[in-house]
């Protein structure tokens, strides 16, 4: 088990990491979630009107908009769910997975072969999915959430249906499919290719790797970004799409009774940072989401902040 000083140092490093990670993640989520249709929209009477929401073309443009409208506190939306989930995972690793001799290397999934790694990754995704949904919604909501009143925040972020039946979060149309496909590409595609092309151990270095093999793998990583980025954008859109239940609408459409009573008590301050899609016209699956993003916003919307996905993949490539 870790000693007291080791634990303090671990928590301190975790805090420093979150100071930088939370704003960067929050900007990424909002940039990918921002609804920016190209064409005219129909009003309640069926007439055409131009889109009036924010038009943000870059990651750093979104960062500037968040800071301008909401200030530092806006950059730290999603801090509490991120902090709580990270603490729980860290303490579980320390308590259940640490060895008698403390190791300060990063924690890695157990080596159980390709299928074992796939199963492990999917299970971990299922465990983390509700927290991820709450985090994404807390980042994208125009409402100001209290830091130390989790129940009040939950009433804002989750619909009455989701609060009564939490498992409905797993039934969000297309979300699980997007997450599993993302895991499959990484575990079944990039993982084996990395082990074949870059057979590195903790003692080896890039000097032991063939330049040709390294170049081939880097090309593959770049090509994989073309698949992974759209899946990440789609997963973001589907995660913030709230699940409602009404006999008069689709299961993910607007819930007529019981939803507005929670939201009207908390007024958003000033201009909204991002535009959100109308909940009365939801995405009904992974393919539907991809198709409608392309039709309504253009295919570049599927590749927002693609370079961050690429940097993440390259980072995993150079890590033993």
What separation lies between the terminal Cα atoms?
25 Å
Q: Spatial order of the strands in the main sheet?
A: 1-2
The rough form would be described as globular
Unreliably modeled segments: 99-107, 247-268
| Number of helical segments with 4 or more residues | 11
Question: What kind of sheet is the major sheet?
Answer: 2 strands, antiparallel
Work out the helicity level.
55-70%
Class computed from helices, strands and strand pairing: mainly alpha
What is the arithmetic mean of pLDDT? 81
Radius of gyration: 21 Å
Report strand %. Answer: under 5%
Count of β-strands: 2
Order of helices and strands: HEEHHHHHHHHHH
Could you outline the blueprint of secondary structure elements for this entry?
Layout: H1 4-33, E1 41-42, E2 48-49, H2 59-75, H3 79-97, H4 113-140, H5 150-157, H6 160-164, H7 175-197, H8 211-239, H9 260-263, H10 286-297, H11 306-317
Pfam family, one: Mito_carr
Solcar repeats: 1-103
Membrane topology: Multi-pass membrane protein
What does this structure look like?
The protein has 320 residues and is mainly α. Helices cover 58% and strands 1% of the residues. The protein has eleven helices and two strands, in the order αββαααααααααα. The protein has helices at 4-33, 59-75, 79-97, 113-140, 150-157, 160-164, 175-197, 211-239, 260-263, 286-297, 306-317; strands at residues 41-42, 48-49. The protein has a two-stranded antiparallel ribbon. Strand 1 and strand 2 (48-49) form a beta hairpin. Helix 1 packs across helix 2, helix 3 runs antiparallel to helix 4 and helix 8 (211-239) packs across helix 11 (306-317). The longest helix has 30 residues, at 4-33. The model is unreliable at 99-107 and 247-268 (pLDDT under 50).
């Amino acid at each position: 088990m870790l000693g007291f000083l080791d634990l303090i140092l671990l928590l301190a490093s975790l805090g420093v990491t979150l100071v930088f990670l939370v704003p960067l993640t929050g900007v990424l989520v909002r940039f990918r979630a921002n609804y920016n249709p190209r064409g005219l929209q129909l009003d309640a009477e069926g007439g055409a009107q131009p889109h009036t929401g924010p038009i943000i073309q870059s990651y750093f443009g979104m960062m500037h908009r968040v800071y301008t409208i909401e200030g530092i506190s806006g950059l730290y939306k999603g801090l509490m769910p991120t902090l709580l989930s990270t603490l729980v995972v860290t303490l579980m690793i320390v308590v259940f997975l640490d060895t008698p001799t403390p190791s300060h290397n990063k924690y890695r999934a157990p080596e159980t072969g390709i299928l074992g790694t796939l199963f492990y990754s999917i299970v971990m995704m299922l465990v983390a999915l509700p927290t991820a949904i709450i985090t994404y919604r807390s980042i994208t909501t125009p409402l100001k959430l209290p830091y130390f009143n989790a129940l009040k925040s939950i009433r804002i972020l989750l619909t009455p249906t989701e609060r009564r039946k939490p498992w409905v979060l797993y039934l969000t149309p297309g979300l699980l499919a997007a997450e599993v496909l993302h895991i499959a590409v990484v575990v079944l595609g990039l993982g084996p290719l990395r082990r074949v092309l870059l057979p590195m151990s903790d003692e080896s270095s890039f000097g032991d790797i063939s330049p040709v093999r390294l170049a081939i793998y880097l090309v593959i990583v770049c090509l994989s970004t073309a698949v992974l980025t759209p899946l990440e954008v789609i997963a973001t859109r589907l995660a913030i799409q709230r699940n409602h239940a009404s006999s008069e609408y689709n299961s993910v459409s607007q819930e007529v009774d019981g939803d507005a009573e929670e939201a009207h008590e908390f007024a958003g301050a000033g201009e909204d940072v991002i535009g959100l899609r109308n909940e009365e016209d939801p995405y009904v699956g992974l393919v539907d989401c991809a198709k409608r993003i392309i039709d309504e916003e253009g295919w570049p919307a599927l590749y927002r902040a693609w370079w961050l996905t690429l940097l993440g993949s390259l980072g995993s490539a150079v890590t033993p």
